[in-house]
């Protein structure tokens, strides 16, 4: 249908504080990386127009705070999401162990119509740090994703732009498929962007 309304895809990026959520988003949208660390307060978002299978869509990427004290903000930000990205640091075992709770929390707060088929993507970030510091193997992460119904998995480096573009291509495609599946349900609410000010320039790198 050429007369379709403009497509807005809402993507939520979750994970512990410091795993690189802001860095990944800035690398993808702005092609920039900064080594300074500034924790995200609440949530910020950036937008990027991308082509998905020859269709122009606007991705709205929400970068949420990893600190537990901000998780109560979840409902407003999670509702209407088309894809959820779970990020951990391959050099930090705890950040991997909490992926399950982030995923569960998202499903509770976002209340998607079909939780079983809702698209998630897992990113193992900071592969540039080096194999000697790595604590979570590719095999373990892949097994986790397969156990959740075959979640797409990418190993990334926001610093060196490794797999960032490829990962977000899959994220965009899965988000678009989810958005289109909602078109069959006229009762599904529209996503209303919330203006929460400028994206901070710090990063969780």
UniProtKB/TrEMBL annotation:
What InterPro entries does UniProt report for this protein, alphabetically?
A: P-loop_NTPase, Small_GTP-bd, Small_GTPase
The cross-references to Gene3D superfamilies, in alphabetical order and at most eight, read:
P-loop containing nucleotide triphosphate hydrolases
- Where does the source fall among the domains of life? Eukaryota
Q: Which UniProt keywords apply?
A: GTP-binding, Lipoprotein, Methylation, Nucleotide-binding, Prenylation
Any one Pfam family match given in the protein's UniProt record, by short name? Ras
Please name the GO terms of the biological process aspect recorded for this protein, alphabetically: regulation of vacuole fusion, non-autophagic
Q: Which GO terms describe its cellular component?
A: fungal-type vacuole membrane; late endosome
Question: Recorded GO terms, molecular function?
Answer: GTP binding; GTPase activity
Q: Which family does it belong to?
A: Belongs to the small GTPase superfamily. Rab family.
Q: What is this protein called?
A: Putative Ras-related protein Rab7
Name of the gene encoding the protein in the UniProt record? YPT7_2
């Amino acid at each position: 249908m050429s007369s379709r309304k403009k497509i807005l895809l809402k993507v939520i990026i979750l994970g512990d504080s410091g795993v690189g959520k802001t860095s990944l988003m800035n690398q993808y949208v702005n092609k920039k990386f900064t080594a300074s660390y500034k924790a995200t307060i609440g949530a910020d978002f950036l937008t990027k127009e991308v082509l998905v299978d020859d269709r122009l869509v606007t991705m709205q990427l929400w970068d949420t705070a990893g600190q537990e004290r901000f998780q109560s903000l979840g409902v407003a930000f999670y509702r209407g999401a088309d894809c959820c990205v779970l990020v951990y640091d391959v050099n930090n075992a705890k950040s991997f162990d909490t992926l399950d709770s982030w995923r569960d929390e998202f499903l509770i707060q976002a209340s998607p119509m079909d939780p079983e088929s809702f698209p998630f993507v897992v990113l193992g970030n900071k592969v540039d740090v080096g194999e000697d510091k790595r604590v979570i193997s590719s095999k373990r992460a892949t097994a986790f994703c397969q156990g959740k119904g075959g979640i797409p998995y990418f190993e990334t480096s926001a610093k060196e732009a490794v797999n960032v573009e490829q990962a977000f291509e899959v994220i965009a495609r899965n988000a678009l498929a989810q958005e289109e599946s909602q078109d069959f349900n006229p009762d599904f609410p529209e996503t209303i962007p919330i203006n929460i000010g400028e994206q901070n320039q710090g990063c969780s790198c």
